[in-house]
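Subgroup meeting minutes
Present: P.N., E.W., G.H.
Scribe: E.W.

1. P.N. recapped why we're keeping a running log of single-chain structure predictions: easier to compare across weeks, and new members can see raw inputs and outputs side by side.
2. G.H. added today's entry (144 aa).
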Amino acid sequence: MKISTKGRYGLQAMIDLALYSQNDLVPLASIAERQDISKSYLEQVFSILRKAGLVKSTKGAQGGYMLTSDAKDITVGMILRALEGDLSVVPMDDENTTNRIESYIRDNIWNRIDEKVFALIDEITLQSIMDDYLKKDPAPMYYI
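Output recorded in log:
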């Protein structure tokens, strides 16, 4: 599995949003500045996250984005699946193969790797990331 820039930046931006929103709207320009990511690229990423129901937006001068759920209810897996689609280590295009070795490898290696990775990313929440991050850096910088 290879995570694209969209997945990496999207996760980074969602962590930033969780850290700085605290039930308030956060402008994409603020996230873009703090994370050194293009605002136009973030607009594309957040459009996908909004359609997936992970963030909501309000337009206008005082507009911005916020999480649709508590940070404890949003997992890394939810974010990456929304942005990347299938996260399987090897795409399972043809599961009806007659090749016994290929079938064995799929069932006993690729599927097992997927299970471990999925279990991990579905266990890590934005809240757990924030808690760990704030232990290491207790005072996030606020931008006005």
